[in-house]
Amino acid sequence: MEMANLIDMLLMFIAAGFGWWTNNTTKEMKRLEILLTKTREEYATRMELRDDMQQVMAALHRVEDKLDNLLSKK
User: I need a surface site. Which of 39, 59, 68, 74 has the fewest CB within 10 A?
Assistant: First the structure.
């Protein structure tokens, strides 16, 4: 083989590798964009979080009251 053919083959492999890498990077970026969009849609809003926290705190207060009643009977 001549040196020109070897150089052409080397450049072809480099170009193919770069094309493969670019393709995979583009696919991964699209996948991450979809996941980011999905994550934004599924996160709770501040109002939802506040309502949930109020329900949790109310449940904890009920448990605390029951413990106080139980301890005061002894």
Answer: 74
Domain span including residue 66: 45-74
Question: 7 and 37, same structural domain?
Answer: yes
Q: Which residues contact 52 (CB under 8 A, 6 or more apart)?
A: 44
pLDDT tens for each residue of 21-41: 999 999 999 999 999 998 887
The mean pLDDT of the chain is: 92
User: If we measure between CA atoms, which residue out of 60, 58, 55 comes closest to residue 68?
Assistant: 60
Residue 12: is it exposed, middle or buried by C-beta count within 10 angstroms (0-12/13-18/19+)? Answer: exposed
